[in-house]
Write a structure and sequence with these properties.
Elements (H helix, E strand, L loop, with lengths): L1 E3 L4 E3 L11 E8 L5 E8 L6 E7 L4 E7 L3 E6 L5 E8 L2 E8 L5 E6 L3 E5 L5 E6 L2 E6 L4 E6 L9 E2 L5 E5 L2 E5 L5 E5 L3 E7 L5 E6 L6 E6 L5 E5 L3 E6 L6 E8 L2 E8 L2 E4 L4 E2 L1 H8 L2 H4 L12 E7 L5 E7 L6 E5 L8
Antiparallel strand pairs: 1-2, 3-4, 4-5, 5-6, 7-8, 8-9, 9-10, 11-12, 12-13, 13-14, 15-16, 16-17, 17-18, 19-20, 20-21, 21-22, 23-24, 24-25, 25-26, 27-28, 28-29, 29-30
Protein backbone atom coordinates (compact mmCIF):
# COMPACT_ATOMS: atom_id res chain seq x y z
CA UNK A 1 0.00 0.00 0.00
CA UNK A 2 1.04 3.59 -0.64
CA UNK A 3 0.00 5.87 2.22
CA UNK A 4 -0.20 9.66 2.21
CA UNK A 5 0.30 10.55 5.86
CA UNK A 6 -0.89 14.12 5.27
CA UNK A 7 -4.48 13.22 4.38
CA UNK A 8 -4.68 9.55 5.47
CA UNK A 9 -5.24 8.26 1.92
CA UNK A 10 -4.05 4.72 1.19
CA UNK A 11 -3.83 3.17 -2.25
CA UNK A 12 -3.12 -0.47 -3.10
CA UNK A 13 -0.47 -1.10 -5.76
CA UNK A 14 -0.12 -4.17 -7.95
CA UNK A 15 -2.58 -7.01 -8.12
CA UNK A 16 -3.03 -9.76 -5.52
CA UNK A 17 -2.73 -13.43 -6.36
CA UNK A 18 -5.80 -15.46 -7.26
CA UNK A 19 -8.31 -16.07 -4.51
CA UNK A 20 -7.27 -19.71 -4.18
CA UNK A 21 -3.60 -18.82 -3.64
CA UNK A 22 -2.45 -17.69 -0.21
CA UNK A 23 0.55 -15.39 -0.27
CA UNK A 24 2.39 -12.75 1.68
CA UNK A 25 4.64 -9.78 0.99
CA UNK A 26 7.93 -10.57 2.71
CA UNK A 27 9.75 -7.29 2.01
CA UNK A 28 9.42 -4.06 0.04
CA UNK A 29 11.59 -1.07 -0.89
CA UNK A 30 11.48 2.32 -2.63
CA UNK A 31 13.99 3.22 -5.32
CA UNK A 32 16.48 5.89 -4.26
CA UNK A 33 14.61 8.60 -6.20
CA UNK A 34 11.15 7.28 -5.32
CA UNK A 35 10.35 6.51 -8.97
CA UNK A 36 9.40 2.89 -8.31
CA UNK A 37 8.71 0.44 -5.56
CA UNK A 38 9.61 -3.24 -5.46
CA UNK A 39 8.33 -6.02 -3.25
CA UNK A 40 8.72 -9.77 -2.88
CA UNK A 41 5.68 -12.05 -2.95
CA UNK A 42 5.81 -15.59 -1.56
CA UNK A 43 2.98 -18.09 -1.82
CA UNK A 44 2.38 -20.38 1.11
CA UNK A 45 1.82 -23.21 -1.39
CA UNK A 46 4.85 -25.28 -2.38
CA UNK A 47 4.06 -24.82 -6.06
CA UNK A 48 2.85 -21.26 -5.66
CA UNK A 49 4.15 -17.93 -6.92
CA UNK A 50 7.54 -16.66 -5.82
CA UNK A 51 8.52 -13.42 -7.48
CA UNK A 52 9.74 -9.86 -7.14
CA UNK A 53 7.28 -7.27 -8.40
CA UNK A 54 7.65 -3.59 -9.25
CA UNK A 55 5.35 -0.57 -9.43
CA UNK A 56 6.27 2.42 -11.58
CA UNK A 57 5.14 5.69 -10.05
CA UNK A 58 4.86 7.65 -13.30
CA UNK A 59 2.81 5.11 -15.25
CA UNK A 60 1.07 3.65 -12.15
CA UNK A 61 1.69 0.17 -13.54
CA UNK A 62 2.92 -2.98 -11.81
CA UNK A 63 4.97 -5.75 -13.37
CA UNK A 64 6.95 -8.85 -12.45
CA UNK A 65 10.72 -8.30 -12.40
CA UNK A 66 12.02 -11.67 -11.18
CA UNK A 67 10.26 -15.04 -11.15
CA UNK A 68 10.91 -18.15 -9.03
CA UNK A 69 12.87 -16.20 -6.43
CA UNK A 70 11.93 -15.80 -2.76
CA UNK A 71 13.81 -12.60 -1.95
CA UNK A 72 13.72 -11.54 1.69
CA UNK A 73 15.78 -8.35 1.31
CA UNK A 74 15.86 -5.80 -1.53
CA UNK A 75 18.41 -3.05 -2.10
CA UNK A 76 18.15 -0.65 -5.07
CA UNK A 77 21.21 0.93 -6.64
CA UNK A 78 21.69 4.69 -6.07
CA UNK A 79 20.89 5.37 -9.75
CA UNK A 80 17.70 3.28 -9.71
CA UNK A 81 18.79 1.16 -12.68
CA UNK A 82 19.48 -1.97 -10.64
CA UNK A 83 17.78 -3.90 -7.88
CA UNK A 84 19.94 -6.20 -5.78
CA UNK A 85 18.19 -8.92 -3.80
CA UNK A 86 19.02 -11.64 -1.30
CA UNK A 87 17.36 -15.03 -1.40
CA UNK A 88 17.90 -18.63 -0.40
CA UNK A 89 19.19 -20.51 -3.44
CA UNK A 90 20.05 -24.18 -3.95
CA UNK A 91 23.58 -23.57 -2.63
CA UNK A 92 22.72 -21.26 0.25
CA UNK A 93 22.28 -17.49 0.46
CA UNK A 94 22.44 -15.87 -2.96
CA UNK A 95 23.06 -12.22 -3.83
CA UNK A 96 21.79 -11.29 -7.29
CA UNK A 97 21.38 -8.05 -9.25
CA UNK A 98 18.54 -7.43 -11.71
CA UNK A 99 18.23 -4.73 -14.35
CA UNK A 100 14.87 -3.05 -13.65
CA UNK A 101 14.36 -2.20 -17.33
CA UNK A 102 15.33 -5.45 -19.06
CA UNK A 103 14.90 -7.94 -16.23
CA UNK A 104 18.40 -9.30 -16.87
CA UNK A 105 19.75 -10.96 -13.72
CA UNK A 106 23.29 -11.77 -12.53
CA UNK A 107 24.40 -13.82 -9.54
CA UNK A 108 27.04 -11.81 -7.66
CA UNK A 109 27.98 -13.99 -4.67
CA UNK A 110 26.91 -17.01 -2.66
CA UNK A 111 27.73 -17.71 0.99
CA UNK A 112 26.82 -16.82 4.54
CA UNK A 113 26.77 -14.28 6.06
CA UNK A 114 26.18 -12.06 3.04
CA UNK A 115 25.91 -8.27 3.14
CA UNK A 116 26.76 -5.56 0.62
CA UNK A 117 26.90 -1.88 -0.22
CA UNK A 118 26.51 -0.09 -3.56
CA UNK A 119 29.20 2.39 -4.58
CA UNK A 120 27.87 5.95 -4.98
CA UNK A 121 28.13 5.70 -8.80
CA UNK A 122 26.40 2.27 -8.78
CA UNK A 123 29.20 0.61 -10.76
CA UNK A 124 30.52 -1.59 -7.94
CA UNK A 125 29.43 -3.45 -4.83
CA UNK A 126 31.45 -3.99 -1.67
CA UNK A 127 30.45 -7.43 -0.45
CA UNK A 128 30.98 -9.04 2.95
CA UNK A 129 30.64 -12.77 2.37
CA UNK A 130 31.78 -15.31 4.96
CA UNK A 131 35.14 -13.93 6.21
CA UNK A 132 35.92 -11.93 3.09
CA UNK A 133 35.31 -8.36 1.98
CA UNK A 134 35.60 -7.99 -1.78
CA UNK A 135 34.71 -5.62 -4.60
CA UNK A 136 32.47 -6.81 -7.43
CA UNK A 137 30.73 -5.24 -10.39
CA UNK A 138 26.99 -5.60 -11.01
CA UNK A 139 27.58 -8.58 -13.29
CA UNK A 140 29.24 -10.54 -10.50
CA UNK A 141 32.82 -10.14 -11.69
CA UNK A 142 35.07 -9.85 -8.63
CA UNK A 143 37.71 -7.19 -9.05
CA UNK A 144 39.68 -7.43 -5.82
CA UNK A 145 39.61 -8.87 -2.29
CA UNK A 146 40.11 -6.34 0.52
CA UNK A 147 40.46 -8.86 3.34
CA UNK A 148 39.89 -12.53 4.07
CA UNK A 149 39.84 -11.92 7.81
CA UNK A 150 36.74 -9.77 8.28
CA UNK A 151 35.65 -8.91 11.78
CA UNK A 152 32.25 -9.43 13.42
CA UNK A 153 30.47 -6.69 11.52
CA UNK A 154 27.52 -6.53 9.11
CA UNK A 155 27.92 -4.48 5.95
CA UNK A 156 30.71 -2.38 4.43
CA UNK A 157 30.21 1.30 3.65
CA UNK A 158 31.60 3.44 0.84
CA UNK A 159 33.32 6.77 1.42
CA UNK A 160 32.89 9.49 -1.25
CA UNK A 161 36.46 9.10 -2.53
CA UNK A 162 36.07 5.41 -3.31
CA UNK A 163 37.36 3.92 -0.05
CA UNK A 164 35.48 1.07 1.62
CA UNK A 165 34.97 0.96 5.38
CA UNK A 166 34.87 -2.43 7.11
CA UNK A 167 35.89 -4.10 10.38
CA UNK A 168 38.82 -6.34 11.21
CA UNK A 169 38.70 -7.69 14.74
CA UNK A 170 37.79 -4.77 17.01
CA UNK A 171 39.16 -2.21 14.54
CA UNK A 172 37.35 -0.21 11.86
CA UNK A 173 39.47 0.50 8.78
CA UNK A 174 39.10 2.06 5.32
CA UNK A 175 40.69 0.53 2.21
CA UNK A 176 41.34 3.02 -0.57
CA UNK A 177 41.17 2.44 -4.34
CA UNK A 178 44.95 1.89 -4.22
CA UNK A 179 44.46 -0.79 -1.49
CA UNK A 180 46.10 1.44 1.12
CA UNK A 181 44.43 0.72 4.49
CA UNK A 182 43.75 3.50 7.02
CA UNK A 183 42.73 2.72 10.60
CA UNK A 184 39.73 4.79 11.73
CA UNK A 185 39.06 3.10 15.08
CA UNK A 186 42.18 1.45 16.49
CA UNK A 187 40.48 -0.72 19.09
CA UNK A 188 37.31 -1.20 21.11
CA UNK A 189 34.75 -1.38 18.28
CA UNK A 190 31.93 -3.92 18.49
CA UNK A 191 31.70 -3.95 14.69
CA UNK A 192 28.33 -2.12 14.54
CA UNK A 193 28.78 1.16 12.64
CA UNK A 194 27.27 3.43 9.98
CA UNK A 195 28.29 6.51 7.99
CA UNK A 196 26.40 9.77 7.66
CA UNK A 197 25.18 10.66 4.11
CA UNK A 198 28.17 12.91 3.43
CA UNK A 199 30.71 10.38 4.65
CA UNK A 200 32.09 12.83 7.21
CA UNK A 201 31.08 11.12 10.47
CA UNK A 202 31.02 7.51 11.54
CA UNK A 203 28.75 6.32 14.35
CA UNK A 204 29.74 3.09 16.07
CA UNK A 205 29.11 1.09 19.21
CA UNK A 206 32.19 0.78 21.38
CA UNK A 207 32.73 -2.55 23.07
CA UNK A 208 33.70 -0.94 26.37
CA UNK A 209 31.30 -1.24 29.29
CA UNK A 210 28.57 -3.78 29.84
CA UNK A 211 26.17 -2.60 27.12
CA UNK A 212 28.53 -0.62 24.90
CA UNK A 213 28.61 3.10 24.19
CA UNK A 214 27.43 4.91 21.06
CA UNK A 215 30.26 7.06 19.70
CA UNK A 216 30.39 9.48 16.75
CA UNK A 217 33.79 9.81 15.07
CA UNK A 218 34.67 12.89 13.02
CA UNK A 219 36.50 11.43 10.01
CA UNK A 220 38.45 14.64 9.37
CA UNK A 221 39.90 15.08 12.84
CA UNK A 222 39.37 11.46 14.00
CA UNK A 223 38.03 12.95 17.24
CA UNK A 224 35.43 10.68 18.95
CA UNK A 225 32.40 11.99 20.85
CA UNK A 226 30.39 9.77 23.20
CA UNK A 227 26.68 10.08 22.44
CA UNK A 228 25.03 7.81 24.99
CA UNK A 229 25.88 4.85 27.20
CA UNK A 230 22.28 3.54 27.07
CA UNK A 231 21.84 0.09 25.44
CA UNK A 232 21.54 1.01 21.75
CA UNK A 233 20.00 -1.55 19.38
CA UNK A 234 20.12 0.48 16.13
CA UNK A 235 20.91 3.95 14.80
CA UNK A 236 20.09 5.85 11.62
CA UNK A 237 21.47 9.14 10.25
CA UNK A 238 18.96 11.70 8.97
CA UNK A 239 19.04 12.43 5.19
CA UNK A 240 20.68 15.82 5.79
CA UNK A 241 23.25 14.33 8.19
CA UNK A 242 22.37 16.77 10.96
CA UNK A 243 20.76 14.29 13.33
CA UNK A 244 21.32 10.73 14.48
CA UNK A 245 18.31 8.68 15.57
CA UNK A 246 19.29 5.91 17.98
CA UNK A 247 16.92 3.25 19.27
CA UNK A 248 17.51 2.22 22.87
CA UNK A 249 15.93 -0.67 24.75
CA UNK A 250 13.90 0.49 27.74
CA UNK A 251 12.81 -2.93 29.02
CA UNK A 252 9.68 -5.08 28.66
CA UNK A 253 10.17 -5.27 24.88
CA UNK A 254 9.90 -1.50 24.41
CA UNK A 255 12.29 0.75 22.51
CA UNK A 256 12.71 4.51 22.42
CA UNK A 257 14.09 6.93 19.83
CA UNK A 258 16.92 9.20 21.00
CA UNK A 259 17.45 12.09 18.58
CA UNK A 260 21.00 13.42 18.77
CA UNK A 261 21.40 16.90 17.28
CA UNK A 262 24.84 18.27 18.09
CA UNK A 263 25.10 18.45 21.86
CA UNK A 264 21.32 18.12 22.34
CA UNK A 265 19.46 14.82 22.79
CA UNK A 266 15.69 14.47 22.49
CA UNK A 267 13.76 11.44 23.77
CA UNK A 268 10.60 10.38 21.96
CA UNK A 269 7.82 8.25 23.52
CA UNK A 270 8.66 4.51 23.87
CA UNK A 271 6.89 1.96 21.68
CA UNK A 272 6.75 -1.78 21.07
CA UNK A 273 8.14 -2.77 17.63
CA UNK A 274 6.55 -5.52 15.58
CA UNK A 275 8.36 -8.84 15.61
CA UNK A 276 9.16 -8.70 11.88
CA UNK A 277 10.60 -5.17 12.16
CA UNK A 278 12.67 -6.01 15.23
CA UNK A 279 13.88 -9.32 13.83
CA UNK A 280 14.95 -8.01 10.44
CA UNK A 281 15.54 -4.26 10.60
CA UNK A 282 16.98 -3.94 14.09
CA UNK A 283 19.12 -7.06 13.83
CA UNK A 284 20.68 -5.84 10.57
CA UNK A 285 20.13 -2.10 10.77
CA UNK A 286 23.42 -1.23 9.02
CA UNK A 287 22.23 -3.00 5.88
CA UNK A 288 18.73 -1.47 6.03
CA UNK A 289 20.17 2.00 6.66
CA UNK A 290 21.65 1.86 3.14
CA UNK A 291 18.41 0.94 1.41
CA UNK A 292 15.34 1.83 3.51
CA UNK A 293 14.27 5.16 5.02
CA UNK A 294 13.06 5.37 8.61
CA UNK A 295 13.51 9.16 8.27
CA UNK A 296 11.19 11.30 6.16
CA UNK A 297 12.99 13.03 3.28
CA UNK A 298 12.78 16.42 5.05
CA UNK A 299 14.24 14.90 8.25
CA UNK A 300 11.25 16.00 10.36
CA UNK A 301 9.72 12.61 11.21
CA UNK A 302 10.51 8.95 11.86
CA UNK A 303 8.45 5.87 11.11
CA UNK A 304 8.52 2.36 12.56
CA UNK A 305 6.31 -0.72 12.59
CA UNK A 306 4.79 -0.98 16.05
CA UNK A 307 2.17 -2.78 18.13
CA UNK A 308 -0.51 -0.81 19.97
CA UNK A 309 -1.96 -1.50 23.41
CA UNK A 310 -4.55 -3.88 21.92
CA UNK A 311 -1.91 -5.97 20.12
CA UNK A 312 -2.60 -4.60 16.63
CA UNK A 313 0.26 -3.75 14.27
CA UNK A 314 0.60 -0.47 12.43
CA UNK A 315 2.93 2.30 11.32
CA UNK A 316 3.90 4.71 14.07
CA UNK A 317 5.04 8.15 12.88
CA UNK A 318 6.96 10.35 15.33
CA UNK A 319 7.29 14.08 14.59
CA UNK A 320 10.68 15.33 15.80
CA UNK A 321 9.72 18.94 16.60
CA UNK A 322 6.55 17.80 18.43
CA UNK A 323 7.72 14.82 20.51
CA UNK A 324 4.26 14.01 21.87
CA UNK A 325 2.65 14.23 18.43
CA UNK A 326 2.41 10.73 16.92
CA UNK A 327 0.38 9.41 14.01
CA UNK A 328 -0.92 5.85 13.68
CA UNK A 329 -1.54 4.05 10.37
CA UNK A 330 -3.27 0.72 11.14
CA UNK A 331 -2.62 -2.70 9.65
CA UNK A 332 1.08 -2.30 8.76
CA UNK A 333 3.78 -4.91 9.30
CA UNK A 334 6.62 -3.12 7.49
CA UNK A 335 6.72 0.55 6.52
CA UNK A 336 9.21 2.91 4.84
CA UNK A 337 9.31 6.53 3.74
CA UNK A 338 9.63 7.41 0.08
Amino acid sequence: MLADVGNDIRMPIGAPLAANQRSRVSTAVWSAQGRWTAWSVDSTDLDGVREVRMHDEESDRASVLVQSVSAFYLCPSPCGRWLSHLSLGPLGLELAVSNVTTGEIHIVERGQPLFWSWSPDATQLAVHVENRVLISDSAGRSTRVLTDDAGPFVTPWWLPGGSVVYAVGDRIVAAGPDDAVTTLVARGSSGRFSLDPEGQRLAYIASTGSDGTLVVLDLLSLAPTEVTSAPVVAFFWSPDGRRLAALTATGDGLVQWLIVDGSDTLRLPPFRPTRSWAGSVLSFFEQYAQSHNVWSSDATALVASAIDDEGHSGALVHTIDSPDNTQWIPDAELVWWA
